[in-house]
Amino acid sequence: MSSTNPISSTSGKQSAPDASPTRRLRDTLVLLGLFGLVLVGLIGLAAATGWEETRAQLAKLTAVQFAALLALSLVNYLFRGLRWHIFARKLGLPTGLIQDLRHFLGGFAMSVTPGRVGELVRMRWLKRETGWAFERTAPLVLVDRASDLSAMALILGLALAFSTTGIAGGLPVTVLALIAAFAATRPRLLGWFATMGHKITGRFARLWAKVRRASLSLSAFTSPTLMALAAMIGVIGWIAEGYAFHLLLMWMGADIGFAKAVAIFVFSTLAGGLTGAPGGVGGAEAAMIALLAMEGVPLEVSVPATAIIRVTTLWFAIGIGLLVFPVAERNSLRHTHGLEKD
User: Fold this and answer.
1) Which parts of the sequence are annotated with region: Disordered (predicted)?
2) 72 Cβ neighbours under 8 A, 6+ residues apart
3) What angle do CA 240, 167, 298 make, to 5 degrees?
4) Is the pLDDT of residue 192 over 70?
């Protein structure tokens, strides 16, 4: 877990340069391994349905259309990055918009870690650049993910309401996502969890104390107005990617309707996250292909469509993260060295 915790003022600074290349190599290998597994699975499905049909569907997509899909994904990332900045300012962090965007986008490089735990590297950068302890900034992660859950739950609920056919399990997933989003932003609940955790385990007193201190910082995000704004920003971002999926299906001759396309995209993304697999890889693709099949979309269309939308969303985000990550790392180290000189 050392790759996600903020480094300390002594031993952390000494060990980070040696450990960092090893961690980056490990994460890169995980990334390549996951991509390879998904690619093998999709190739197998494409071969089973016929290479000619799959190739014909892929040929329907032009470079301009592919660029449009990437642009819609970028809308999602930038809007969510803006939301991260709003949360950071609300917490009182002395960071600017570009700085917060650098942290947010750079963290995507760690999306392939189980449960996206590696994205906590953002807290390490904040520790280096502002001096704020991990427990003071950790609520940013909770409220950011809670906002994503609430936004996706709202989108899924509305999309299911306006689509002609439902999705099995769609309503329970919507309700569970809303409950999880609510629970993750309750300071008292987090404090109670820390207290009970200490009582039950009887160990890790320092860890539970940090969780309790984190619950105090979480109280900065209890404003209904703030959370409504955050949900609206999240809805705009995720709708952009859902719309991209709708456009892709239309371009490939499988128009199932905007509401249904968005519902399938959001449900599959949530389902992939529930598997606990890094980036939801495997689960999201399987759910997407299965749900498209239930709508009568043949495999020679659903397989390439799934591959393309995942490349232009998840893998595009990881690509951006890999580009921004070294920049964020260098900038954070520069701040650290500046503090040492002072």
Assistant:
1) 1-21
2) 240, 241, 243, 244, 247
3) 80
4) no
